[in-house]
Specification:
25 helices; metal-binding; TF_fung; 572 residues; mainly alpha
């Protein structure tokens, strides 16, 4: 047997080590650090955490953009501060459920999101705003992927707890689903927040309805609800945020189902309910707000005006639309017309009160602001009111050829619908493009309802496309810079304009139900979504919209069509 010497052993070990070093260096040189995903820090790894941002094939793998975007953390302190500032600048004016000074102070006290008591709310804000965060090098698809991952995680975490922050987070996330046109997902989030008949949901368990209707004072008292020990607000800010979360849930539920007959869970009006405080007071820090009693305020807020319309006046519209009428029978049609006209008179009276309230509100709170009458909630309230009028009467408006006609059109209904469309257009005409781009996604639905009526009526009477329709189409295009729902509706409008003189069901490509005003816009939502999705997959999808844009619907200049009026009666 041959025995090796110590020198030979050392030489062989040295050769082995050198070979291993060469292999390791080769592996290191061949590895690509940009392909490593960037998970959110300091959280337990779950299947949602294992996502990898998509890399744009047009970007060089060695570019700084790829490296920076892969290492981007949407929950880092710097980015979170930016996203929260974006929320309060662009979303909070029409979705005022959070107290800005308190949240920003909490961010300063706890820069790490995972240790913050507001982490659910902050993550929800990040999910809504990160797709439009262009301050860091990243692709739109990457930002959208981060948003989707955050949304799914927040929903799962919110369902595991009952807290004010969970309700606020779900309400914030609802803007994503509605803005993308996912109404069923949107209603699921609202259902998680809303207390419905006999069911214990978040608002009921948190005592929000009791706080609003009974000011939380229903234990051992004569009350319409059973006495319960409810979690009381810790601070005046906590109390106000509960009130605002409750009312926002009611607004989302009532406004998003306007025009349909199947929403039986609409809460009845509360005559003595507590409304949110003044918008100007809500901007102060908590130590200043605590000095006053909210009951001392003499003027409402723009948010409260929207609450009064949706939670009180629209309840009567919902209840009327839920009644069964066979309008083909003369006696039932006459009864339907009588009740609809009475309800319309009620809405008209409320419109006058609304105009007066806006005057008082501007004089008391916004006297120094140049465009106070265009507060986003004032604009939204005005448009929802017009949408309610159209929802009341569109069934008895003229029907175009190709749609079954079971009765004569009612001129009163036609005139009221046209008035509502014209009034809405007059308001939208005065809203600036930047204000439209940052507006609530719920404004999109109202504009499309009016645009649809213009189109169907013009087709029914064989008239040209009304000029006001061009303005609504332009407004939808501006809203489409942020919301996919507006882009979908814009596609429908452009196609309807291009096919205006084509017979329904023969040459027109749109679903027949679009031209049948017996169906509300929500009734045909699924059909329109399927049609647009199919159009995007078709090789002919681009030709129709391009031709229409050239005809003036999508390509008009705002300077010619959008003028600002100082007439308050026209503005409101």
């Amino acid at each position: 047997m041959e025995v090796s010497s110590p020198d030979q052993d050392q030489q062989q070990q040295r050769i082995d080590l050198e070979s291993r070093v060469k292999i390791l260096e080769a592996d290191k040189n061949n590895s690509s650090p940009i392909l490593q995903p960037a998970p959110f820090p300091d959280v337990q790894q779950t299947p949602l955490d294992h996502f990898e941002p998509s890399i744009d094939s047009s970007i060089s793998p060695n570019s700084n953009l790829s490296v920076a975007s892969t290492n981007f953390d949407p929950l880092s302190a710097t980015i979170v501060n930016e996203l929260c500032n974006t929320w309060f600048e662009k979303y909070h004016p029409w979705f005022p459920i959070l107290h800005q000074p308190s949240l920003l102070e909490a961010l300063r006290a706890h820069p790490s999101v995972e240790t913050s008591t507001h982490q659910l709310v902050i993550k929800a804000i990040a999910s809504v705003t990160v797709p439009y965060c262009v301050s860091v090098p990243s692709t739109p698809s990457q930002r959208q992927q981060w948003s989707d991952t955050l949304r799914d995680r927040v929903v799962m975490d919110a369902m595991k707890q009952i807290s004010l922050q969970a309700v606020q987070a779900l309400l914030i996330l609802s803007n994503i689903d509605y803005g993308e046109g996912k109404v069923h997902e949107f209603w699921n989030l609202v259902a998680l927040c809303k207390s419905s008949l006999g069911e214990t949901r978040m608002n009921t368990s948190l005592g929000m309805r009791d706080l609003v209707t009974n000011q939380g004072d229903n234990f051992n008292k004569i009350s319409t609800v059973p006495p319960r020990m409810l979690p009381l607000p810790n601070t005046i800010i906590d109390r106000e945020e509960r009130i605002r979360a409750y009312w926002m849930t009611e607004i989302l539920d009532g406004a998003s189902t306007l025009g349909v007959a199947w929403n039986l869970g609409i809460s009845p009006p509360e005559g003595t309910a507590v409304l949110p405080c003044s918008d100007s007071i809500w901007k102060f820090p908590s130590h200043i707000i605590s000095v006053w009693s909210f009951g001392d305020f003499h003027f409402s807020s723009a948010f409260s005006l929207c609450i009064i319309l949706v939670a009180s006046e629209l309840w009567h519209v919902h209840r009327f639309l839920q009644k069964a009428f066979d309008v083909r029978l003369l006696d039932q049609r006459m009864k339907w017309q009588q009740e609809a006209q009475q309800l319309d008179e009620r809405l008209t009276a409320w419109r006058g009160e609304f105009v007066a309230a806006v005057y008082r509100l501007i004089n008391s709170e916004y006297a120094q602001e140049e465009r106070a009458e265009f507060d986003p909630n004032i604009v939204l309230t005005n448009c929802i009111l017009d949408t309610a009028v159209i929802a009341l009467f569109q069934r008895l408006a003229p029907s175009p050829d190709g749609i079954d006609k079971y009765y004569e059109a009612w001129p009163y209904a036609t005139n009221r619908c046209l008035y509502a469309c014209d009034d809405m257009t007059a308001k939208i005409r005065q809203v600036r493009d930047k204000e439209l781009e940052n507006s609530s996604p719920h404004l999109i639905y109202s504009m499309f309802v009016a645009a649809r009526f213009y189109l169907v009526y013009a087709k029914a009477v064989a008239a040209d496309i009304p000029r006001n329709l061009h303005l609504l189409a332009y407004a939808l295009r501006i809203c489409g810079e942020r919301w996919a729902l507006a882009r979908r509706y814009g596609t429908v409008i452009r196609t309807a304009v291009a096919e205006h003189h084509m017979p329904i069901g023969v040459m027109s490509s749109l679903p027949v139900q679009f031209f049948d005003l017996q169906y509300s816009t929500l009734d045909i939502d699924e059909a329109l979504r399927a049609w647009v999705d199919g159009l995007s997959l078709s090789s002919h999808g681009g030709s129709g919209s391009g031709g229409v844009a050239g005809g003036g619907v999508g390509g008009m200049q705002s300077s010619h069509m959008r003028t600002v009026s100082v007439d308050m009666n026209a503005a409101v």
